[in-house]
Amino acid sequence: MNTSEFRQQREQQMQQAEELLASVPERLGIGKGLFWGQFVADWIFPYPRLSDAEQSRVDQSLMELKQFCDQHLDPEQIDREADISRDALAHR
Amino acid sequence: MTAFLVTPDMPGFEVVEARMPKVGIRGTATARLAFENMRVPAANILGPLGKGLKVALTVLDFGRTTFGACCTGAAKTCLRLAGEHARTRRQFGRTLAEFELVQKKLARMAAWTYAMEAMTTITASLIDRGLEDYMLETAMLKVYSTEVLWTMVNDAFQIHGGAAYFTDKPLERMLRDARINQIGEGANEVLTSFIALTGLRGPGLRLKSVADAARRPWSGWRIIGRFVWDQVAYRLQTPSVSVRSPSLRPAADELSRHIHRLGLAAQRTLFRHREEVVERQLDQERLAWIAMELFASACVLSRIESEIIESRLPADELDRRVKTASYFLSMSARRVDDELKVLKHNDNVQLRAAGT
């Protein structure tokens, strides 16, 4: 690719990226704030916590998922055969 | 660029190879697809015409957050396997865990795992809160957790020595599985540039408006005056990071100072390179890593603060976490110091000479 084609392509890419970035709201989040030397505290503090009800629902689902994996999935076999056996999937 | 939906029943679509053999994550199928002279009806367009990049990046926002979660899970397994082995395996009359070079690996593995989990939790909460734009945060989470996990798998592997090298051992598989993370959903190099350039865009536009104003002195003087005033005010001010637990205050103060210094470094980089900053990937990478470390440290501070204040954990567990978090904060601050130093004094010129 010659230099002018390269420049042209770069211009085009930059224009696309610029359109994308300009289309999002300019509200300063934690990431952009860092580059301004600012700390956008309410994106970080307080540490998010699930409500007790949500937490117990998540714990329950995780337990079921873990049970399923332990009982029906053999990671070594999946890796060796490069597939998940249909038997295991039938237990869903 | 426009996003559109293709279904397998469309003429011209073909699955060339249903499962391409691959290094890791072999339980998932990756197919080679062909699209030959396909006509896609306008009804299949996803999102607005010409806004495909936005669609793709929005989808990736969720994907990148799951990378943080998957890496955290894999990291916990690495840490457990390494810890168990180091505490039981004896060499030279002691357990491996008694050697400092093994402790170094275990300490940083624990620290990174703690940080990755905190970053994932906070990033996911940004999505849950319905904030509009968290592309930068999901990109930082993705790059950080995938790079760190790769080092961690390698650490766990090294602690196990030759025993890990045999196939059908969990670490051998984890090593192969972990490798895709640095490539998938945006290669880390691309995302690193994305992080730096997205972050630099705001300050860059501001500097440009000042530079433009300087060229037309009579109408621009107000912008310049405002800018000079901001600069004076800025140099005197560090942002405040406040924490509710007094024991965390020194780390919070150091984080504020480092955020302030990143702001100055971003400006300096823009002054030095101007528009050419888009090509200066070596400096982009340094700025991106500083930002990622600061994001990680902020997440760790938030998590450990809540664990101290809420005191729901058993005392010995809380004590262990405080030690882990405090090691993370010091390790991360050291990296920020190093990157800031290298931004000023580096061998970019020699590197480019040798690399072309």
Structural summary, described in words:
- The complex is a heterodimer of chains A (92) and B (356).
- Chain A is mostly helical and 92 residues long.
- Chain A contains five helices and no strands.
- In chain A, 65% of the residues lie in helices and 0% in strands.
- Chain A starts with a helix and ends with a helix.
- The mean pLDDT of chain B is 93.
- In chain B, helix 1 (52-88) packs antiparallel against helix 2 (100-128) and helix 7 runs antiparallel to helix 8.
- In chain B, the strands form three sheets. Chain B has a two-stranded antiparallel ribbon. In chain B, strands 2-3 form a two-stranded antiparallel ribbon. Chain B has a two-stranded antiparallel sheet with strand order 5-6.
- Chain B is mainly alpha-helical and 356 residues long.
- Chain B has three domains: 3-46, no CATH class; 52-186, Butyryl-CoA Dehydrogenase, subunit A, domain 3 (Up-down Bundle), CATH 1.20.140.10; 191-344, Butyryl-CoA Dehydrogenase, subunit A, domain 3 (Up-down Bundle), CATH 1.20.140.
- At the A-B interface, helix 1, helix 2 and helix 4 of A face helix 1, helix 2, helix 3, helix 5 and helix 7 of B.
Feature tags:
heterodimer, A: 92 residues, mainly alpha, 2 domains, flat, B: 356 residues, Butyryl-CoA Dehydrogenase, subunit A, domain 3, 3 domains, two-stranded antiparallel sheet, 10 helices, 6 strands, 68% helix, 5% strand, globular
SSE blueprint and pairings:
The complex is a heterodimer of chains A (about 90) and B (about 350).
Chain A (H helix, E strand, L loop, with lengths): L2 H21 L6 H6 L16 H21 L2 H7 L4 H5 L2
Chain B lengths: L2 E2 L8 E5 L14 E4 L9 E2 L5 H37 L1 E2 L2 E2 L4 H29 L6 H26 L9 H9 L9 H28 L1 H20 L12 H25 L7 H30 L4 H30 L3 H8 L1
Antiparallel strand pairs in B: 1-4, 2-3, 5-6
Helix pairs in contact in B: 1-2, 1-3, 2-3, 2-8, 2-9, 3-4, 3-5, 3-8, 5-6, 5-7, 5-8, 7-8, 7-9, 8-9
Strand content of chain A: under 5%
Round the Cα radius of gyration of chain B to an integer and report it. 24 Å
In terms of DSSP E residues, the strand content of chain B is under 5%
Secondary structural class of chain B: mainly alpha
* Total domain modules of chain A: 2
- Mean pLDDT score of chain B, rounded? 93
> In the CATH hierarchy, what is the superfamily of the largest domain in chain B?
Butyryl-CoA Dehydrogenase, subunit A, domain 3
Rough shape of chain B?
A: globular
